[in-house]
Amino acid sequence: MSDLTLYLAPGSCAMAVHIALTEANAGHRYHQLDLAAGEQRRPEYLAINPKGRVPALITEQGVLTETPALLLYVAQRFPAANLAPLDDPYLLARMQEVHCFLASTVHIAFAHGRRGSRWADDEQAIAAMRAKVPANMRDGFAQIEQYYLTGPWVLGERFSLADIYLFVVAGWLKSIDIALDEFPKLAEHHRRMLARPAVQQALAL
User: Fold this and answer.
1) Nearest to residue 191, comparing CAs of 161, 152, 150?
2) Are the CB atoms for 166 and 194 separated by under 8 Å?
3) Is residue 1 scored above 60 in pLDDT?
4) Contact between residue 115 and residue 177 where contact means Cβ atoms under 8 Å apart
5) pLDDT, tens digit (0-9, with 9 covering 90-100), for 70-99
6) Model confidence over 117-142: pLDDT tens digits?
């Protein structure tokens, strides 16, 4: 068993790392944090991740944070799982392109609805940001539908970490009353992911 401990919260982007570790059959421990109760801001967790966010992965060499970094770590640490095209510079960059888009555009758009106080103190400004979230999320997933879902998987015929990350972030749509079926390719991708045994196992927290 690998000496890895993952800090996560159900429904958060950290679930992508949990699914990736499960897909890789990488034995690991995990601790769930109750974000609504503020457990991520308690001193004992801030000593692990001063950012006060999830995920955080304790490895034998130290602590790693940020979902895209952790996903690539899993792929490189457990190459036999074939979770990333480590032998193909173009496809690897394409996978990372998707990860960057999810982290820097889609996730931020979603966060404006629940974490508006990160960007403004004025209540009207926060309300305006919240109201804009569905439109911004639709824009982001329309781009994913058109440009990134070119086959059964994000990288065409090749399953990768990008599919895991997309699956988790797409799961947030229902919380803002956007149906997956608005994006047919995305909806089919989501159903395909739900059929994977490792996904089912990881979601059964």
Assistant:
1) 152
2) no
3) no
4) no
5) 999 999 999 999 999 999 999 999 999 999
6) 887 888 898 888 899 999 999 999 99
Question: What pTM does this model have?
Answer: 0.95
- What is d(CA 203, CA 205) in angstroms, rounded to the nearest whole number? 6
Cα–Cα distance for residue pair 199/190, rounded to 1 Å = 11
17 in helix, strand or coil? helix
Peptide bond into 55 cis (omega under 30): yes
Strand extents, DSSP E, 54-186: 56-58, 63-65
- The residue assigned the tokens 């399953």 is 159
Cα–Cα distance for residue pair 147/83, rounded to 1 Å: 21
Nearest one of 16, 11, 13 to 163, comparing CA atoms = 16
For 98, the token pair is 């998707």
